[in-house]
Amino acid sequence: xxxxRLYSPSYIKEIIDSYGxxxxxxxxxxxxxxxxxxxxICEEGQITKDDEVLEIGPGIGTLTEELALRxxxxxxxxxxxxxxxxxxxxxxxxxNIEIVHGDILKLDLQELFKEKFESKSIKVxxxxxxxxxxxxxxxxxxxxxxxxxxxxxxxxxxxxRMGASPGSKDYGxxxxxxxxxxEPEIVLTVPKNVFMPRPNVDSAVIRLKMRKEKIAxxxxxxxxxxVKAAFSKRRKTILNSLSQGLNMEKEKIREILEKAGxxxxxxxxxxxxxxxxxxxxxxxPFNIY
Length: 289
What we know:
Number of domains: 2
Largest sheet: 7 strands, mixed
Structural class: alpha/beta
Mean pLDDT: 94
Low-confidence stretches: none
Strand content: 15-25%
Distance between the termini: 55 Å
Oligomer: single chain
Radius of gyration: 21 Å
CATH topology of the largest domain: Rossmann fold
CATH architecture of the largest domain: 3-Layer(aba) Sandwich
Strand order of the largest sheet: 4-3-2-5-6-9-7
Number of strands: 9
Shape: elongated
CATH superfamily of the largest domain: Vaccinia Virus protein VP39
């Protein structure tokens, strides 16, 4: 087995130079070059030999290798075809890794899981490009893909928004969306100097543990429409933001808020998921698109 680990900066440079690889800004490629961070990510992911792991964006296989040392199986989805021969070399010693070339946003996830995994203990791990963080996480949550948890490295600011509590400056519609489906916890902050090339901002690793029981909603689509409208005008009262965001008369909104026990002068950032659920349950069906 190759004694060189894939988080060595000199080895990474040697590998990518030998293949003539060039980092793609459009794909947001930043490779980890710190072994301690790689190991901590796997530890916080609580990866064991009972687990099968879906990794999104393996790059040259830095995190993939560490996952393979701990998990029963790793399936890594890579969109950049120029990385496939590199992965073929760097991960050649591991028989529990399978590389899939494709776009995680376009692949049939249900079919992928059916074909590639056998167990019921599946975890998602990813070092996500900043520009595509929310679409990828949203897809897994909205389609309610059957996984135990999602552990992702994202822009620090985005992680803080996902895990924010009511009343904080970071709390918003993304917080409510993520927390409806999961229990988020920021488990690691990652400085920008542990990447090649170095990004402009720091990152954070957030663990999204899937909720076994979700808050009851009368209509999920209306709920998220109401949440989005409520946060569309952060400086305005909940009465004004809902009226403008949903294009409804203030008196109708006032009536709904009073029935829900919410003051019309309250602001969205102070309301929790249960309160948004109460409000949305009182709305009649309307065009959500």
